[in-house]
Amino acid sequence: MGANLLSNPGFENRTGDNFDNWTEATGGTATITAETTDVFRGSTSIKFSPDGVANCYIAQTNLCEVGQEYTITFWAKGVGGSSQCYCSQPFNSGAIYLTSEWKKYMVTGIATATGFLLSRQSNDTPFLVDKVKLEATPVKFAVKRVALSDDIASPDTDVTETDFGTVKAAIVMVTNVPNGSGSNSHNIFSVGFWDGTSQRVVWAGGANAAAQSATNRGIVNSRIAYAKTTSLWAEYSISNITNGVRITMEYDGTSIGRYATVILIGGADVEAEVSLHRIPANTTTTTRDVSIDFRPDLLLMASTGATVTTENGGKMAFGAVSRYDLANRAIYFNDINAQETTNCACRTTASYCTAQMDGGDVPWECSATKFTSNGYILTMSGSSLNDEDILVLALKIPGVQIKLDTLTGASSTGNDSITGVGFKPGFLMIANTIATSLDTHTDGISYGVGAGTSSSESFSGVTSEDNVDTSDTTSVCVAKVLSLRNVDGTTSEYSVATIDSFDNDGFTLNYTTADAVTKGWYLAIADVSSGQHKRIIRYT
User: In terms of Cα–Cα distance, which of 306, 439, 465 is closest to 361?
Assistant: First the structure.
């Protein structure tokens, strides 16, 4: 999966029975010696001759990050019969039973210590070890569809994944779907980013069955989710717990629990930072050199064109940028407030990472045009009438392949294979709208973001019907990677798919509903367990 964190892992560098970079400890009559005849590879293996009582181990220090996942691989054999060993650092492997032939052994666990220690078990049979490897799991994802708390007196919802380790970042998307349902009236949609410390959320909401369209938007600090149309219904914060996160209801105005799509991001090599960037009003083309603590590999962006908690008009954009080919993609919508007849539309672009609509027009757009050693450069074009904020989650995922590209939704049901990705994904995100072509708005809003791994999927989205006297808005949250709804007043399924498989050069979606071609984007991140995840070409 990754680089070997151990020095002198094959025990070739030594002076007699003293191995470079290794600490050796023995007691009683136990010994640790160099073996030059019976080796797996090279000229030397290491021989443990325990006495069944005293210490007999080798160790290296300051290698691991506590709370992250690591894999230990080594070759070993018993001398003259079966034997046993175990690793007590960076995690306790339990007894590893060795045969009398050279075999490869592999154990994976969550680090509870920063060092590496391999020892004899409670036995006195000698054994040989060669070619030891300690590697970090560089990145891992979990996707959950979670029912959030509906009671301020019991506000916590724990979102966990077995043996996930410490979560480095999270994305939380909440709509107005109550617990026990898949859709509901009112098109509330919030997107929150968290980097383990900072959390911010953008939101947009549109009331259903209103005589005039009643739409709002905003941005909120120190919160991960926010549910509001014309009045505040609920807000939530996020914090770390073992193998997951805790989402806590901070305000309850309706006593309704809501479903959320929660994406957990972990891995020893991952770094994350949430930041906010303002586009000044009446500014034409401008660039901004954003400085953070690392060179990011991926940017995720969410914006509503708001700078405060609440502003009139429902707008939102959700986009991404990959450093490795400077691909920019975004979906966005606009739902004008206080209209006697609703006026709303959505759009997909393959040129920008965020933008804002005003009716069918696009007054400003933004792309990431360069990545630097400690940040990235944003280039804005057009002109906004007001100051507008962009929320960014920057992620460092070194050594792992990423593909960001346009997704054309299927026009017929059944399997649809997406190829040309270049690797087998382990994580997939899809952002989609009912737009049928790029950079052209489509009347009505059917908009959402889904994500999935090989074990779970979740999609959050909203709809709003255009050109009607009474607003017709809906929220969706289902256990699928894609679930766009019709905007004809029925809210019936329009484009619905699940992940059928992750393939060596892409992925296959299974469409159960495909009324027409749609345009969106997908983000695929390589499966680190497949051995295909490493990048071959480096870009700057």
Answer: 439
